[in-house]
């Protein structure tokens, strides 16, 4: 996405539709703006099938907006990767249909999720000084 359109939710949603984009990777707050202020009708009818959210805590409002989009073929994945890497070390699909949007995290509006699932052919090690 060209830098000049990065903050334009309508331009992003129209680009997803016009170019038949099937997978988008973004921060939850960025996607929240697409879903709230973009062209939801265009997104609903688009080829968008896979949503990858990571880089910051996932707010309950994101799940609510995905549910309200009402796009049954869109799968939402919560991903995690360390800042020092450019890949996701863990991935977990979230069921946002009928999701309980109550605040369950320590910060209001944030949800608590496990660290997700390690993809095939990946290893995760938790190390200490020993």
What does this molecule look like?
There is one protein chain. By secondary structure, this protein is α/β, with parallel strands linked by helices. The chain has one domain (3-94): 3-Layer(aba) Sandwich (Rossmann fold), CATH 3.40.50. It is 28% helix and 15% strand. The chain is built from 4 helices and 4 strands. The chain has helices spanning 9-18, 28-37, 40-45, 60-69; strands spanning 23-26, 50-53, 75-80, 90-94. It has a 4-stranded mixed β-sheet. β2, α4 (60-69) and β3 form a beta-alpha-beta unit. α1 packs across α2 and α2 packs parallel to α4 (60-69). The radius of gyration is 16 Å and the shape is globular. Mean pLDDT is 83; it is low at 103-108. This is AMP-dependent synthetase/ligase domain-containing protein. Pfam families: AMP-binding (PF00501). It comes from Xylaria bambusicola. InterPro entries: AMP-dep_synth/lig_dom, ANL_N_sf. Residues 8-130 form the AMP-dependent synthetase/ligase domain.
β-strand percent reads 5-15%
User: Strand order, biggest sheet?
Assistant: 1-2-3-4
Q: Could you give a short account of the major beta sheet? A: 4 strands, mixed
Q: What is the β-strand count?
A: 4
Helix content: 25-40%
Integer count of domains: 1
Here the CATH topology equals: Rossmann fold
* CATH class value: Alpha Beta
Number of helices: 4
Protein name: AMP-dependent synthetase/ligase domain-containing protein
Domain AMP-dependent synthetase/ligase: 8-130
Pfam family, one: AMP-binding
Organism: Xylaria bambusicola
């Amino acid at each position: 996405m060209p830098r000049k359109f990065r903050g334009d939710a309508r331009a992003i949603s129209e680009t997803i539709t016009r170019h038949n984009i099937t997978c988008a990777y973004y921060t939850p707050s960025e996607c929240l703006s697409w879903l709230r202020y973009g062209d939801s009708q265009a997104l609903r009818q688009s080829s968008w099938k896979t949503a990858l959210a990571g880089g910051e805590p996932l707010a309950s409002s994101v799940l609510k907006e995905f549910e309200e989009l009402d796009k049954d073929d869109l799968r939402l994945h919560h991903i995690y990767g360390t800042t020092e890497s450019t890949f996701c070390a863990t991935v977990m699909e979230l069921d946002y249909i009928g999701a309980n949007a109550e605040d369950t995290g320590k910060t209001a509006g944030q949800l608590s999720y496990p660290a997700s699932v390690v993809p095939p052919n990946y290893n995760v090690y938790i190390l200490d000084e020993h």
